[in-house]
Amino acid sequence: MHLDMDLKNLKPEAKENILTITVAGILIVVFYILLKNVGWVFNGVLKLVKALAPFIFGFAFAFVLIPLRRTIEIKWLKHVSIKFRTKRKIATLICMLVLILVLFSFFAILIPQLADSLSTFSASFDGYMQKAVQWVESINGTNSQMSNMVNSLIDSASGKLTEWLTGARGGIATLLSFSISFARGILNFLIGVIICIYILLDEEVFKKQFKSLLYAILNKKSATRVIEVLRLTSKTFNSFLFGKFIDSLIIGVITYIAVVIMRMPYAPLIAFVIGITNMIPVFGPFIGAIPCLLILLIIDFWMALEFFVFIVILQQIDGNVIGPRILGDAVGLPTLWVMFAIIVGGSLFGIVGMFVGVPIFSVIYVLANDRIKRNLKEKNIVVED
Fold first, then answer.
1. For residues 319 and 286, is the Cβ–Cβ distance under 8 A?
2. How confident is the model at residue 3 (pLDDT cuts 50, 70, 90)?
3. How many domains, the chain?
4. Which of 15, 204, 260, 310 is least crowded, fewest Cβ atoms below 10 Å from its Cβ?
């Protein structure tokens, strides 16, 4: 009884401090438990992701295609005198045709060229290795010890590759496992496309259900705040994904044209690698350049050097001209924090973390910045430069 009276008599600031300390304590305990059982938690999350793979595909496709569907409805079909539901169906059909066209272009045009480049490289690999051995011998002159060491390494690598391919747990088992995973992935992909169609057709229905759930389990202020955060996240990811996709497509095309003009081999493969890795801000072009440089270095040293100079120039053009014009201020992060997001995201989740780390940290940065400004305004504090 006395405790209830004491709590009622507390000042609002004291109540807020008690609530903050309590929440912080709970979070610390939860974080400690997660650290102690990190393996179990990771396996559980992995199983959950596998189970939800079709829905992840569906939401990902819908997330990318919803802006296109809205553009078709609002701009392209604006003056067409038909019912809204009919407009929605037409817009959804066009979106799915665009998705199919992009996938068809990828698998029917790009994949054969990539496969041809990889096949040519594999067939020429022995010749490249012999050239590398000759290069080492020419550097070391009469030093036969270095040459013997290189030949020993090549023989050892060849032996391990053969053992891996023929072993009980080697390449055959791995290929079988990969085939099963690939088939499961295709099935999840097709189910994801169906889920995407449902979301595109009835986006408002699903949004209303989600909002109803939020307002039912949270108070009005908290639910509204969650919705605002989700809108900010959606806007940031949409701007970043679309901008980086266009930017990477341009960089890939420029790389392909430049490699063809410079008469370098494996132009489709090199352009594809550079274009894909360019999705990673700042470090992307250099990450993609490393395997390409290794391939070219085996073939010809001066060719690799020429390609390195080209990549440095291309990165500067992309970073200072192409990227800013396409992306604008889509992410809204200073360069230092972009690098921080890439490094931390990459350390935690690998290549995927390097890619999604920037938009995620951008959302956190905006929310934290708004909170700091609001607190400073309430305290009538002006921070000078």
1. no
2. very low
3. 2
4. 204
φ/ψ of 148, rounded to 5, equals -65, -35
Residues 6+ apart with CB under 8 A from 296: 264, 303, 304, 307
CA 251 from chain center: how many Å? 17
Three-state DSSP class for residue 66: helix
Helix (H, G, I), strand (E, B) or coil at 168: coil
Q: Which domain holds residue 67?
A: 52-113+175-201
Q: Is residue 79 part of a domain?
A: yes
- The answer to whether residue 60 sits within a structural domain is yes
List pLDDT tens digits, range 345-371.
888 777 778 878 888 888 888 888 888
The confidence band for 151, taking pLDDT boundaries of 50, 70 and 90, is low
Q: Is the pTM of this model over 0.70?
A: no
Shared-domain flag, residues 19 and 66: no
Torsion of CA 109, 110, 111, 115, to 10 degrees: 110
Q: Is it the case that residue 128 has pLDDT exceeding 60?
A: yes
User: Which residue, chain included where needed, has tokens 């990227």?
Assistant: 323
Same domain, 109 and 181: yes
Q: Any idea what DSSP says for residue 106?
A: I
Q: What 3 state SS string does 279-313 have? A: CCCCCHHHHHHHHHHHHHHHHCHHHHHHHHHHHHH
Say what angle helices 171-201 and 203-217 make with each other, to 10 degrees. Answer: 90
Q: Are residues 21 and 103 in the same domain?
A: no
Question: Can you read off the two tokens belonging to residue 288?
Answer: 């993609």
Does some domain include residue 89?
A: yes
Identity of residue 227:
I
